[in-house]
Amino acid sequence: MPMDKLLYVAAKEGNMEVLEQYKDKFATELTPYNNTVLHVAAQHDGFNRPKSPIGFLDMAGPNLFFSLNCNGDTFIHVAARNGNLEIIKAFINYTKNCGGLGIVRDIEADIQKLLSITNNDGNTALHEAVMHGRRSDDMVELLVKEDAAFSHPPNKAGKSPLYLAVERGDNVSVELILNNCASPSYAGPIGATALHAVVMHPFPTTVYNDSCA
Fold first, then answer.
1. CA 182: distance to chain centroid?
2. CA distances from 162 to 74, 81, 148, 197, 209 (A)
3. Where are the ANK repeats (predicted)?
Protein backbone atom coordinates (compact mmCIF):
# COMPACT_ATOMS: atom_id res chain seq x y z
CA MET A 1 0.00 0.00 0.00
CA PRO A 2 1.45 3.43 -0.94
CA MET A 3 2.41 5.45 2.11
CA ASP A 4 -0.14 8.06 3.12
CA LYS A 5 1.28 11.57 2.73
CA LEU A 6 0.31 12.49 6.30
CA LEU A 7 2.21 9.48 7.63
CA TYR A 8 5.26 10.31 5.50
CA VAL A 9 5.37 13.88 6.80
CA ALA A 10 4.84 12.68 10.38
CA ALA A 11 7.77 10.26 10.12
CA LYS A 12 9.91 12.97 8.51
CA GLU A 13 9.10 15.54 11.19
CA GLY A 14 8.81 13.25 14.22
CA ASN A 15 5.12 13.98 14.81
CA MET A 16 4.23 11.35 17.41
CA GLU A 17 0.55 12.32 17.55
CA VAL A 18 0.01 11.46 13.87
CA LEU A 19 2.30 8.42 14.02
CA GLU A 20 0.22 7.03 16.87
CA GLN A 21 -2.86 7.15 14.64
CA TYR A 22 -1.13 5.09 11.93
CA LYS A 23 0.85 2.63 14.06
CA ASP A 24 -1.26 -0.39 13.08
CA LYS A 25 -0.42 0.26 9.41
CA PHE A 26 3.35 0.72 9.73
CA ALA A 27 4.12 -2.67 8.16
CA THR A 28 2.04 -2.08 5.04
CA GLU A 29 2.52 1.64 4.37
CA LEU A 30 5.54 1.91 2.05
CA THR A 31 7.02 4.51 -0.29
CA PRO A 32 7.63 3.63 -3.99
CA TYR A 33 11.16 2.55 -2.95
CA ASN A 34 9.75 0.25 -0.26
CA ASN A 35 10.86 2.56 2.53
CA THR A 36 9.01 2.08 5.81
CA VAL A 37 8.29 4.86 8.27
CA LEU A 38 11.58 3.93 9.97
CA HIS A 39 13.52 4.49 6.74
CA VAL A 40 11.80 7.86 6.30
CA ALA A 41 12.57 8.92 9.87
CA ALA A 42 16.19 7.79 9.48
CA GLN A 43 16.57 9.89 6.35
CA HIS A 44 15.51 13.09 8.10
CA ASP A 45 16.19 14.91 11.36
CA GLY A 46 12.67 15.04 12.77
CA PHE A 47 13.57 12.92 15.78
CA ASN A 48 16.84 14.62 16.62
CA ARG A 49 17.12 16.44 19.93
CA PRO A 50 15.10 17.46 21.85
CA LYS A 51 12.69 14.84 20.46
CA SER A 52 13.60 11.24 21.27
CA PRO A 53 12.91 8.41 18.79
CA ILE A 54 12.60 5.82 21.59
CA GLY A 55 8.80 6.01 21.70
CA PHE A 56 8.63 5.77 17.91
CA LEU A 57 10.88 2.69 17.87
CA ASP A 58 8.73 1.08 20.54
CA MET A 59 5.67 1.82 18.43
CA ALA A 60 7.28 0.30 15.31
CA GLY A 61 8.54 -2.82 17.10
CA PRO A 62 11.45 -5.16 16.31
CA ASN A 63 9.83 -6.76 13.25
CA LEU A 64 10.06 -3.48 11.35
CA PHE A 65 13.74 -3.03 12.25
CA PHE A 66 14.77 -5.68 9.72
CA SER A 67 12.60 -4.39 6.86
CA LEU A 68 14.56 -3.74 3.66
CA ASN A 69 13.88 -1.16 0.96
CA CYS A 70 14.54 -1.63 -2.77
CA ASN A 71 18.28 -1.16 -2.22
CA GLY A 72 18.34 -3.76 0.54
CA ASP A 73 18.83 -1.03 3.15
CA THR A 74 17.66 -1.33 6.73
CA PHE A 75 16.77 1.92 8.46
CA ILE A 76 20.25 1.71 10.04
CA HIS A 77 21.88 1.94 6.59
CA VAL A 78 19.77 5.00 5.81
CA ALA A 79 20.58 6.64 9.14
CA ALA A 80 24.33 6.02 8.69
CA ARG A 81 24.22 7.43 5.15
CA ASN A 82 22.44 10.57 6.30
CA GLY A 83 24.34 11.16 9.53
CA ASN A 84 21.31 10.46 11.73
CA LEU A 85 23.20 9.46 14.85
CA GLU A 86 20.28 9.94 17.23
CA ILE A 87 18.08 7.23 15.74
CA ILE A 88 20.90 4.66 15.83
CA LYS A 89 21.69 5.55 19.45
CA ALA A 90 17.99 5.23 20.23
CA PHE A 91 17.84 1.79 18.57
CA ILE A 92 20.79 0.58 20.67
CA ASN A 93 19.29 1.97 23.89
CA TYR A 94 15.85 0.58 23.05
CA THR A 95 17.26 -2.90 22.42
CA LYS A 96 19.25 -2.87 25.66
CA ASN A 97 16.36 -1.50 27.72
CA CYS A 98 13.79 -3.99 26.44
CA GLY A 99 16.09 -6.98 26.93
CA GLY A 100 16.88 -7.64 23.28
CA LEU A 101 14.87 -8.21 20.13
CA GLY A 102 14.48 -11.96 20.53
CA ILE A 103 16.19 -12.48 17.17
CA VAL A 104 19.43 -14.18 18.23
CA ARG A 105 21.15 -15.33 21.39
CA ASP A 106 21.59 -12.14 23.44
CA ILE A 107 21.16 -8.37 23.51
CA GLU A 108 24.60 -7.50 22.13
CA ALA A 109 24.23 -10.07 19.36
CA ASP A 110 20.83 -8.63 18.41
CA ILE A 111 22.38 -5.19 18.00
CA GLN A 112 25.39 -6.52 16.13
CA LYS A 113 23.20 -8.55 13.76
CA LEU A 114 21.35 -5.48 12.55
CA LEU A 115 24.47 -3.32 12.33
CA SER A 116 26.25 -5.96 10.21
CA ILE A 117 23.51 -6.54 7.61
CA THR A 118 24.69 -5.80 4.07
CA ASN A 119 22.57 -4.11 1.40
CA ASN A 120 22.47 -4.84 -2.34
CA ASP A 121 25.89 -3.21 -2.75
CA GLY A 122 27.36 -5.31 0.03
CA ASN A 123 27.61 -2.29 2.31
CA THR A 124 27.17 -2.41 6.06
CA ALA A 125 26.15 0.68 8.00
CA LEU A 126 29.85 1.41 8.57
CA HIS A 127 30.54 1.43 4.81
CA GLU A 128 27.73 3.96 4.40
CA ALA A 129 28.98 6.16 7.23
CA VAL A 130 32.53 6.24 5.85
CA MET A 131 31.47 6.79 2.23
CA HIS A 132 29.03 9.60 2.82
CA GLY A 133 30.84 11.35 5.63
CA ARG A 134 27.98 13.55 6.82
CA ARG A 135 28.67 14.12 10.52
CA SER A 136 30.48 10.80 10.27
CA ASP A 137 33.12 10.84 13.04
CA ASP A 138 30.70 10.14 15.90
CA MET A 139 28.77 7.73 13.67
CA VAL A 140 31.88 5.72 12.78
CA GLU A 141 32.95 5.63 16.43
CA LEU A 142 29.55 4.35 17.56
CA LEU A 143 29.35 1.66 14.88
CA VAL A 144 32.83 0.25 15.42
CA LYS A 145 32.58 0.25 19.21
CA GLU A 146 29.25 -1.61 19.21
CA ASP A 147 30.88 -4.60 17.54
CA ALA A 148 34.62 -4.46 18.06
CA ALA A 149 35.05 -8.12 17.06
CA PHE A 150 33.46 -7.69 13.62
CA SER A 151 36.06 -7.40 10.86
CA HIS A 152 33.89 -5.25 8.54
CA PRO A 153 34.67 -7.16 5.33
CA PRO A 154 34.68 -5.66 1.82
CA ASN A 155 31.54 -4.73 -0.10
CA LYS A 156 30.72 -5.90 -3.64
CA ALA A 157 33.19 -3.36 -5.03
CA GLY A 158 35.86 -5.15 -2.99
CA LYS A 159 36.32 -2.27 -0.54
CA SER A 160 36.36 -2.60 3.23
CA PRO A 161 35.40 0.42 5.36
CA LEU A 162 39.07 0.82 6.31
CA TYR A 163 40.10 0.89 2.64
CA LEU A 164 37.37 3.44 1.89
CA ALA A 165 38.50 5.66 4.75
CA VAL A 166 42.12 5.59 3.54
CA GLU A 167 41.01 6.17 -0.06
CA ARG A 168 39.13 9.28 1.05
CA GLY A 169 41.95 10.61 3.19
CA ASP A 170 39.68 10.34 6.24
CA ASN A 171 42.33 9.91 8.91
CA VAL A 172 39.81 10.24 11.77
CA SER A 173 37.79 7.25 10.53
CA VAL A 174 41.00 5.29 9.89
CA GLU A 175 42.12 5.85 13.49
CA LEU A 176 38.69 5.00 14.89
CA ILE A 177 38.57 1.72 12.96
CA LEU A 178 42.14 0.71 13.81
CA ASN A 179 41.82 1.68 17.48
CA ASN A 180 38.47 0.00 18.09
CA CYS A 181 38.24 -3.03 15.79
CA ALA A 182 40.07 -6.12 17.02
CA SER A 183 40.89 -7.35 13.51
CA PRO A 184 39.61 -5.01 10.79
CA SER A 185 39.66 -6.05 7.15
CA TYR A 186 42.26 -4.20 5.07
CA ALA A 187 40.77 -5.49 1.82
CA GLY A 188 40.51 -3.39 -1.31
CA PRO A 189 39.61 -4.15 -4.94
CA ILE A 190 41.61 -6.44 -7.24
CA GLY A 191 43.85 -7.71 -4.47
CA ALA A 192 44.77 -4.28 -3.15
CA THR A 193 44.77 -3.47 0.56
CA ALA A 194 44.43 -0.34 2.66
CA LEU A 195 48.23 -0.16 2.66
CA HIS A 196 48.19 0.13 -1.14
CA ALA A 197 45.57 2.87 -0.78
CA VAL A 198 47.91 4.83 1.49
CA VAL A 199 50.45 4.92 -1.34
CA MET A 200 47.85 5.73 -4.01
CA HIS A 201 45.97 8.28 -1.89
CA PRO A 202 48.50 9.76 0.56
CA PHE A 203 47.02 11.59 3.52
CA PRO A 204 47.50 15.34 3.65
CA THR A 205 50.27 16.19 6.09
CA THR A 206 50.36 19.04 8.56
CA VAL A 207 53.53 21.11 8.53
CA TYR A 208 54.56 22.24 11.98
CA ASN A 209 56.65 25.37 12.30
CA ASP A 210 58.88 24.93 15.32
CA SER A 211 60.99 28.03 14.74
CA CYS A 212 61.28 30.56 17.54
CA ALA A 213 59.70 33.93 17.00
1. 20
2. 22, 16, 14, 10, 31
3. 71-93, 121-155
* Rounded Cα–Cα distance for residues 137 and 36 (Å): 27
Q: How many CB atoms lie within 10 A of CB 130?
A: 31
What would the pLDDT profile of 135-194 be if each residue is shown by its tens digit? Answer: 678 999 999 999 999 999 999 999 999 999 999 888 899 999 999 999 999 998 988 887
Q: What is the pTM of this model?
A: 0.87
Amino acid at position 162, single letter = L
| pLDDT reported for residue 102 | 56
Q: Do domains 1-117 and 125-203 have the same CATH topology?
A: yes
- Domain residue limits, the chain: 1-117, 125-203
In tens, the pLDDT along 90-112 reads: 999 888 887 556 554 567 888 89
CATH homologous superfamily of 125-203? Ankyrin repeat-containing domain (1.25.40.20)
> How does DSSP classify residue 202?
P
* Measured distance CA(109)–CA(40) in Å, rounded: 25
1-117 belongs to which CATH class?
mainly alpha
Buried b / exposed e over 173-194, threshold 16 CB at 10 Å, is bbebbeebbeebbbbbeeebeb
